[in-house]
Design a protein that fits this description.
- This protein has helices spanning about 1-25, 80-100, 110, 145-155, 165-170, 185-195, 210-220, 235-240, 245-250, 260-270, 285-295, 305-310, 320-340, 345-350; strands at about 40-45, 60-65, 65-70, 70-75, 100-105, 130-135, 160-165, 200, 220-225, 275-280, 300, 355.
- The N and C termini lie far apart (about 75 Å).
- It is globular.
- With about 350 residues, it is an alpha/beta fold.
- About 40% of the residues lie in helices and about 15% in strands.
Length: about 350
């Protein structure tokens, strides 16, 4: 009975934590301080004679063997509560309508309590797009194995699994799991045994080239850099912890991490073929264009979409989320037109992305 009570307590604690995370991300300032994504230091050199029609610009792409209407991803955010279920369904409907890929939030809640699996089941709303199931990599050191990961993929009817690396979040989380020892071999085993592609993502502190190399050698199929410059999860946890030491220490880590731009560069240098997802502080289609020109295959949007999905944005309407998707796509298309790139392949090959301060008079 003691084990059963402990299990129920853990399930309730996980669901409560997910609800707190949503509220904090919607209501508090949880952005990194003192470090930016890096996109603000890049600009495209304008092409006054693009030699193409705006209507000819083709955003089509692919991920995990499925076609996409645009090289864009709804980044992993939430699940495990009634509110999270509503948010995920809205995001899935918008992603399906616009042909974006979608990552789900950590599915630990559904593994602990299958009654919560419905909060992650969005395949009915998104029958054709790539969907990523999501678990914390560290859970491989806390009893999760290949069968658990396979169950998460089945519950979500997902096309792949992404393992999130959130070591610094776990440090500041009151109930954090901080044994990250020996994880690489467990990730390698999972890549060998699971029948769907396995990828890895950070949660807002970036992935450097050396880490990317080790992950690639372990067999991961894609890497989401999730760089610094967007949401800082040490700042999120600051609003949850009752530990005065941890709360005070978050100030010292507000600028921790590797910028999204630097992470894209370092990960891409390790492989020309691995799928790279750029997330972390992206707000516009121009940011997405810069990320792809740097070497990313997909650009991911997370907390920027959350207020619209939760109906909490200024002047929120039923179609506010769809409008946000449309705006991002329009900005991406306009940026491509402005440099004369007709396709995503052209955008990846462009030489018109330069550091700000260079080419300003062109």
């Amino acid at each position: 009975m003691t084990e059963e009570r402990n299990s129920h307590h853990e399930e309730a604690a996980t669901a409560k934590r997910k609800g707190e995370h949503i509220r904090i991300c919607l209501e508090e300032d949880v952005a990194s301080v003192g470090i930016a994504s890096g996109f603000e230091h890049l600009r495209f050199r304008h092409n006054a004679l693009p030699e193409l029609s705006l209507g000819r610009i083709d955003l089509s792409s692919a991920f995990l063997g499925k076609p996409l209407k645009a090289p864009l991803l709804v980044s992993s955010m939430t699940g495990g509560t009634d509110q999270a279920e509503r948010i995920n369904r809205k995001l899935a409907e918008a992603a399906e309508a616009h042909g974006w890929a979608m990552g789900l939030g950590s599915m630990r809640a559904a593994i602990e309590d299958e009654a919560l699996a419905a909060t992650f089941r969005v395949r009915a709303e998104a029958p054709t797009i790539p969907i990523l199931a999501n678990l914390g990599a560290v859970q491989l050191n806390y009893g999760y194995g290949v069968d658990t990961c396979r169950r998460a993929v089945e519950l979500a009817e997902a096309d792949g699994l992404v393992l999130h690396l959130n070591s610094m979040q776990e440090v500041f989380q009151p109930e954090g799991d901080t044994n990250f020892g020996g994880l690489l071999e467990r990730i390698a085993e999972l890549c060998r045994e699971l029948q769907v592609p396995v990828g890895v993502k950070e949660v807002g502190w970036g992935i450097d080239g050396d880490t990317a190399r080790r992950l690639l050698d372990a067999g991961v199929s894609f890497i989401d850099v999730a760089g610094a410059g967007g949401t800082s999860w040490s700042q999120v946890e600051k609003f949850r912890t009752s530990d005065p030491i941890r709360r005070a220490a978050t100030a010292a880590f507000a600028d921790w991490g590797i910028s999204t731009v630097q992470s894209i560069r370092e990960v891409r240098e390790q492989s020309s073929s691995v799928s790279v997802i750029a997330s972390g502080g992206l707000h516009s289609g121009v940011d997405a264009a810069k990320a792809i020109a740097l070497g990313a295959d997909l650009a991911g949007f997370g907390r920027a979409l959350l207020p619209s999905a939760a109906g909490r944005s200024a002047g929120a309407t039923a179609d506010g989320l769809l409008s946000q998707f449309e705006r991002i796509e329009f900005e991406l298309r306009a940026a491509m037109f402005g440099i004369g790139a007709a396709t995503i392949a052209d955008l990846k090959r462009t030489t018109r992305l330069v550091s700000s301060g260079r080419g300003d008079q062109q």
